[in-house]
């Protein structure tokens, strides 16, 4: 793997159940706020509805999937944060790389149900899906003409896109890349995770001894990656730097992580190697930490093995598992934590599990370092890791 | 500069299975499409389509491995096996191999039928976990990695008709960065009843053949399904391979996309809404178009790429089917003529001025 130059992150945007801006989310995390509840946006026939982290009060856009509308809101915040208005964007080579799971699926339930019942249903829901490719929607909204890529790598999508977008900057394919993830809550994913028996019927408890699974969430986060040439022309300070990206597949099971965490360890090693960063330089890890028994066991042992003693936490206790958006949301939180020099406590963790390799931080704490990891594990055995460095604004 | 070569090709579709079948098709007239009855609100309607045959997979993969796999994953697995075998690579223990899948629509049969049926029939509590897992876009990448032991980076991209150039851009980046030395790159889409139904609803009339994509003012598209896989390598390989992958670009370009390569392989597929843009891009250029052999589908640019790779290796041209219907000024390749150009560009145009360019070079 060739070593890579750091890529500047000049803007952030985020919307999820924790808040509708990056600042609102961070305030909620450090207050310890979380309020999972039974779903409101869709009905369920489960006798005891499993709680979810739903965004309240978000106005959907007619003709667009909620997923893509969430992505647009985060993109608007991130571009404004980067100081990029339409005039500044004109003339730049801008690419878009967005991760999702729901945003590309041809699974409008009402349409399919009617079609299967022998009707000729209105095509509007299909037209909505076909015009809602999350990367295309952002490119269309802002008139970007660079490459568009919607990554559907299940739950690692939002982390993968950051590494892929950074590669476009490093190779001078783009001056600016809008990267991130977006996913909405839906009945199909809700039922699917419950069917797999990896959902918790109570508020999720990542890394806790009594964890029983995840709570689904929804949201979007966008990061603006920018070339040195562009940001120097604009005299824009970086909020952070993308230092490395690692990705590896377990090739073990479709929905369960490999017990020895070997794929995750290789992804971490690859991310560190990109910038020749020693493990000792990592100040903290924003872990995947879904709250499923398997994920948290594998992840804790991998972290104990390759990053011993490094503080880690999961933020899914505040946001739920936002699937394709999770990696991007957590990368945004990681950048914000590096800026603030502190990390939140791992919501839901109260009882140590003796079978884990390491335990998360329980309460907010200050951190002194300038480099952090954010990682995602996914169906299909994907492991993705980004290494982030503190920027120039803090 | 790292040189990227195409070391293996695995293709199947309406024309048959494997490189030899593809070459045979390119040397012949397109096979006629088959007729598929599609359920509609007015009863079954016949749709002419280029359907793929998955039977050859049974000779390559044990039946028990395929037992829980849906048709979408089976298609991808067949493409992967064909490409690896063509490259002389054992389809097992491929530690470190990168894997990238491009798909316009994903596992629509599983998503639309098996999964939703399980919910609709018996309620939320009876949702099938197997069908849910199989409904994920990246399920076929997961199945391939499991079967061949591919532990390198693994990515699935969905960008509708620009999925191939978009995903190939990343494959090239991985190889140039030294992230991996080889990438198994594949494009796959299935023609499920849902996709067939949407085709009928959105496009109306059924064309029973032939496709006439060079008659750009005419609607003549016929849907297809299949997969085109490639082994891409940045190694010094023992065998020379087919060609080099020189460049990939994609995005939106306001105005005209002019071809500046020595030969343009047009992704025109009989959809009238893109005809004028292809004609404008190809005006005055030397061109070829092979879509009547495999039909209209998101993986189409990967089949174009396979045809270009074969022409570059064999140094001879294949005929563009229905070339006499070409309604714009261009120089069409003469069948069997020696290929003297060093570079070819596969050009795909999509809605909202989207484009993809895949540039291949002679070894």
Beta content of chain B comes to 15-25%
Q: Which value, in Å, is the CA radius of gyration of chain B?
A: 20 Å
Number of strands of chain B: 14
Strand order of the largest sheet of chain A: 3-2-4-5-1-6-12-11-7-8
Largest sheet of chain B: 12 strands, mixed
Unreliable segments of 5+ consecutive residues of chain A:
none
What order do the SSEs of chain A take from the amino end to the carboxyl end, as H and E?
EHHHEHHHEHEHEHEHEHEHHEEEE
The number of domains of chain A: 1
Brief digest:
With 394 residues, chain A is of the alpha/beta class. Chain A has 13 helices and twelve strands. Helix content of chain B is 31%, strand content 22%.
Question: Any overview of this molecule?
Answer:
The complex is a heterodimer of chains A (394) and B (363). By secondary structure, chain A is of the alpha/beta class. Helix content of chain A is 33%, strand content 19%. Chain A has 13 helices and twelve strands. In chain A, the strands form two sheets. In chain A, strands 3-2-4-5-1-6-12-11-7-8 form a ten-stranded mixed beta sheet, with helices on both faces. Chain B has a single domain, classed as Thiolase/Chalcone synthase (Peroxisomal Thiolase, Chain A, domain 1, 3-Layer(aba) Sandwich). In chain B, strand 13 (343-350) and strand 14 form a beta hairpin. The two termini of chain B are 15 Å apart. At the A-B interface, helix 4, helix 6, strand 3, helix 7 and helix 8 of A face helix 4, helix 5, helix 6, strand 6 and helix 7 of B.
Key descriptive features of the protein:
heterodimer, A: 394 residues, alpha/beta, Peroxisomal Thiolase, Chain A, domain 1, ten-stranded mixed beta sheet, two-stranded antiparallel ribbon, 33% helix, 19% strand, B: 363 residues, twelve-stranded mixed beta sheet, two-stranded antiparallel sheet, globular
């Amino acid at each position: 793997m060739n070593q890579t130059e750091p890529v500047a992150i000049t803007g952030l945007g985020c919307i999820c159940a924790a808040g509708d801006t990056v600042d609102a989310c961070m305030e909620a995390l450090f207050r310890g706020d979380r309020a999972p509840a039974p779903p409101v946006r869709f009905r369920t026939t489960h006798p005891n509805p499993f709680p979810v982290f739903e965004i309240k009060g978000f106005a959907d856009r007619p003709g667009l999937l909620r997923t893509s509308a969430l992505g647009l809101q985060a993109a608007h915040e991130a571009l404004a944060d980067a100081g990029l208005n339409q005039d500044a964007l004109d003339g730049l080579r801008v690419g878009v790389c967005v991760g999702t799971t729901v945003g590309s699926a041809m699974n409008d339930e009402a349409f399919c149900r009617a079609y299967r019942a022998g009707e000729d249903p209105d095509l509007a829901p299909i037209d909505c899906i076909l015009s809602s490719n999350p990367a295309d929607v952002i490119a269309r909204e802002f008139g970007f003409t660079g490459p568009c890529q919607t990554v559907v790598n299940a739950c690692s999508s939002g982390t993968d896109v950051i590494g892929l977008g950074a590669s476009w900057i490093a190779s001078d394919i783009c001056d600016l890349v809008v990267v991130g993830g977006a996913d909405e809550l839906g009945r199909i994913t809700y039922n699917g995770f419950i069917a797999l028996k990896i959902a918790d019927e109570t508020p999720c408890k990542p890394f806790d001894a009594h964890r029983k699974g995840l709570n689904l969430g929804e949201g979007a986060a966008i990061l603006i990656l920018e070339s040195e040439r562009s940001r120097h022309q604009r005299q824009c300070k970086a909020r952070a730097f993308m230092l490395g990206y690692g990705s590896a597949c377990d090739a073990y099971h479709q929905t369960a992580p490999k017990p020895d965490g070997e794929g995750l360890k290789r992804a971490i090693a690859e991310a560190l190697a990109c910038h020749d960063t020693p493990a000792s330089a990592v100040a903290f890890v924003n872990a995947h930490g879904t709250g499923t028994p398997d994920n948290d066991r594998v992840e804790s042992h991998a972290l104990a093995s390759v990053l011993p003693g490094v503080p880690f936490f999961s933020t899914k206790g505040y946001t739920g598992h936002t699937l394709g958006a999770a990696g991007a949301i957590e990368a945004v939180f990681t950048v914000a934590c590096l800026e603030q020099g502190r990390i939140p406590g791992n919501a839901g963790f109260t009882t140590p599990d003796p079978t884990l390799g390491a335990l998360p931080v329980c309460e907010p704490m200050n951190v002194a370092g300038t480099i952090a990891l954010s990682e995602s594990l996914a169906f299909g055995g994907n492991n993705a890791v980004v290494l982030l460095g503190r920027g120039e604004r803090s | 500069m790292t040189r990227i070569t195409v070391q293996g090709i695995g293709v199947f579709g309406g024309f048959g299975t494997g490189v030899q079948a593809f070459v045979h098709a390119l040397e012949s007239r397109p096979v006629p499409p088959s007729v598929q009855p599609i359920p509609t609100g007015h009863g079954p309607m016949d749709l002419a389509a280029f359907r793929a045959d998955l039977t050859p997979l049974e000779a390559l993969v044990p039946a028990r491995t395929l037992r829980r796999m849906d048709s979408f994953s089976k298609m991808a697995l067949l493409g992967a096996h064909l490409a690896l075998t063509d490259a002389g690579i054992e389809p097992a223990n491929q530690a470190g191999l990168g894997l990238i899948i491009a798909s316009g629509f994903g596992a629509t049969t599983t998503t639309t039928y098996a999964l939703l049926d399980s919910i609709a029939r018996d309620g939320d509590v009876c949702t099938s976990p197997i069908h849910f897992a199989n409904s994920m876009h990246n399920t076929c990448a997961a199945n391939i990695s499991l079967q061949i032991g591919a532990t390198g980076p693994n990515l699935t991209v969905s960008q509708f008709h620009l999925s191939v150039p978009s995903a190939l851009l990343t494959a090239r980046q991985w190889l140039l960065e030294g992230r991996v030395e080889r990438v198994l790159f594949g494009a796959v889409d299935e023609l499920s009843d849902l996709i067939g139904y949407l085709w009928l609803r959105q496009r109306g009339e059924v064309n029973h053949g032939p496709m006439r994509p060079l008659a750009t003012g005419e609607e003549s598209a016929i849907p297809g399904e299949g997969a085109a896989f490639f082994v891409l390598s940045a190694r010094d390989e023992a065998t020379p391979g087919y060609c080099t992958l020189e460049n990939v670009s994609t995005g939106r370009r306001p105005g005209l996309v002019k071809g500046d390569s020595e030969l343009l392989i047009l992704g025109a597929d009989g959809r009238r809404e893109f005809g004028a843009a292809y004609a404008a891009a190809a005006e005055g250029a030397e061109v070829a178009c092979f879509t009547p052999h495999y039909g209209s589908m998101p993986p189409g640019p990967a089949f174009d790429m396979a045809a270009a790779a074969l022409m570059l290796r064999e140094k001879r041209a294949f005929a563009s089917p229905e070339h006499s219907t070409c309604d714009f000024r261009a120089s069409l390749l003469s069948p069997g003529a020696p290929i003297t150009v060093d570079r070819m560009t596969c050009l795909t145009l999509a809605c909202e001025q989207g484009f993809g360019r895949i540039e291949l070079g002679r070894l």
